[in-house]
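User: Could you check the structure of this?
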Amino acid sequence: MLQQVFAERRNMLQQVMTVRSNMLQNVMAVRNNLLQQAMAERSKMLQQVIAVIGSMLQQVIVFIGYMLQYVMAVRSNMLQHVIVVGRNMMPQLMTVRSNLLQQAMAERRKMLQQVIAVIGSMLQQVIVVIGYMLQHVMAVRSKMLQQVMAVRRNM
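Assistant: Sure, the predicted structure tokens are below.
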């Protein structure tokens, strides 16, 4: 009778150990799936951030190119005026040339300040977008980790 009780006890312990082992395997599988999902989501979000930053930087580069072309065209026109005035009005050449060069330099400085302001604004927008994207990535990561911790607690 005592041997039968011990045998039943051993059988029950084996069943409990088997169920516990199966539950641990299931919990580990769920944990691994959640971690894989979190990593995939993080990778996807980082790719999106990189794509947005790349697009914004391309736009900044195109804008800089256009502004530099415009600045160079204005400079070229001013210099052509200086040359024409110099040929036609030799006695007043130095005064006019000096004034035109000062105007050209002032215009160029003004345009470069505008370009710098626009670039600064665009970079601030890029930084804001990056901040929002990173906040979202961190929120998703935190949520996934909380789910993993909840699964561990339920073991």
